[in-house]
Write a structure and sequence with these properties.
The complex is a heterodimer. By secondary structure, chain A is mainly α. Helix content of chain A is about 75%, strand content about 5%. Chain A has a three-stranded antiparallel sheet with strand order 1-2-3, with helices on one face. The longest helix of chain A has about 50 residues. The termini of chain B are far apart. Chain B is mainly alpha-helical. Chain B is rod-shaped, with a radius of gyration of 15 Å. The chains are: A mainly alpha, B mainly alpha. Chains A and B meet through helix 3, helix 9 and helix 13 of A and helix 1 of B.
Chain lengths: ~475, ~35
Amino acid sequence: MPGTEWTLLDTSIVIVYMIFMVGIGVYIGQRINGFDDFFLAGRGLTTPLLVGSLVATYYGLDVTFGSSETSYFEGISTFFVYSAPFYISYILVTFAIAPRIRTLQAASMPEVVGHYYGKSAYVAAAFASALYSMPILSVFGIGIIGEVFFGVDPALAAILGSSIAVIYTLLGGLLADAITDIFQFNVMCVTAAIAAVFAMFYIGSFDTVRPALDASLLQPTGELSAAEIVVYITVALTPLIEPAFYQRILAAKNMRSIRNALLLGIVLWIAFDWVVVYLGIIGRYMVDTHMLPDDIDPSAIILHVTAYLLPTGLLGLFAAGCIATATSTIDSYALIFSGNVVYDGWQTITGKQIPEKRLVAYIRIGVFLSVVLALLVAFRFDRIRDAWIFMASILNSTVLVPMLVVFLFPAFINRRAGAWSSVTGCLTGISFFLIFEAFGTIDETIETRVLLVGETALLREHLALVTLPVAFAAYLLGYLVDRMKKS
Amino acid sequence: MMNVFTWFCIAVLAVGATTIFGLYIKDLIKFLNRKG
């Protein structure tokens, strides 16, 4: 890469950071006394821990790499079209969802679903949540960081980086996760801010880059079809059923802590999104003006920009920041995956409650297995985005309709309807994804899989246009059948 | 306008992260004392 050379100081910073994270796990591990301690940090997380944990967990490398890559191609509309709708969902989570689920003595999102809709919906939600929580993207992202900064094999880098996250999560559970998250959150925010300051001084503000860029890159609104708008709205609703949000809401010390944490998180997410979008645009400017080669991988544009701009030492800190972004996501989702399989899935299916000590042991094994699975899957997919679309679509198809009813139309909560909706949504999601895999073709220009239905080209991202109406119809049918049987 | 917003976001990240870290250290001491 052009610009700054990677030095021993940078490597030392990364190594010290990793040792520190493991140290936290060892220390916290000695203080774990049961399931609530391990899985919900004793339900005692305070506002600062919650802010750090929410921001660092929910914003992984998919946001850092994904948003900068998207803004490289589409400019500031990335912020207004893709990021902004999420903020409305965060506000809904803060004021409509958190107060409601705090009243339940649940431990996870599927358990909340199970509380309202019974066993079948609980198991379907646990399956969808586990699938969604497999930390595939972050594992893959660590591989890219290792390759770009250290020149090592991506698979090896992914194994090493993930192992750090597994060790401290295995030892200290959610508390170790939350404490490491706050350091990771700091490194992540501060290094992004530093990179943006260097870009503003050494490359330029929007006024400087404007003449060299295509005017459309600085237009706030993109050109979206009605179908795309529906898809983005659906995707932006994901926070309403986000397993990591639920876990933290339930682990909060009190309602005030989680409300303040979510409100502070929203401000930080907005700032982080904009800075990443700005760095992506700077990357585009640097490529267009030949400061960076035009054959670089746009998905790693933020790494190339920072490697060019930051001096030694700060570059190491930025690499640590990227690793932090990935590990903070891996640890949290590995824990959620394991909780979904053992606590939600296994206990509900067998109908037997696992003794507390054994439950913690099983969840620890599950954390390890989730990362092994993610490693196996991450390097098997040609396109990592395929895996993410599949995981997020299944979660939405299974849980979104029943949970929207809970939050928006509580008078219509009905066990039969919820069970029908979640099971049908889940199966429809899986079926349609498999149909796309079997009969769809990859369109290289729009980088997605396309299925021709008559003369209509259906993109894989449009999966929700089919599965959500099906899940809604199943809910309605279940509701009507139930009412008829009761009358 | 966009430049002002960029500087604002940089400040939010830097000040926000530092402040929350400070609050966390204060909380952590209390939390670990209570647990241990």
